[in-house]
Amino acid sequence: MVDDVFRIGANMTDESCRNSHLSVFRYSLPNSIANIKTDIAYWYGSKEALLAKKYAKCILTIVPNVKIKVFKGLDHGELCIGNPDLYIKQATEFFYS
Hints:
Elements: H1 2-10, H2 14-26, E1 41-45, H3 49-62, E2 67-71, H4 78-82, H5 84-96
Parallel strand pairs: 1-2
């Protein structure tokens, strides 16, 4: 996937690249999420914990019953892209528990 990201990025203007990166860090959860009636899972890899842990705490303040799980040794996207069998196992357990 890294090759795809570089290929796409090479065809974007500097301004588009900057805007896409900034948009990720400017996102905030809508207030309506506090009223959600469904279970929420927040999964992240231990190698991306610097930001993901902060976001997990933020979600917990709004939705106290969110199910947070950290996958040791994994980086951003590695659970679903690099370990699809584990991802499917975790998703199945979440949806059917």
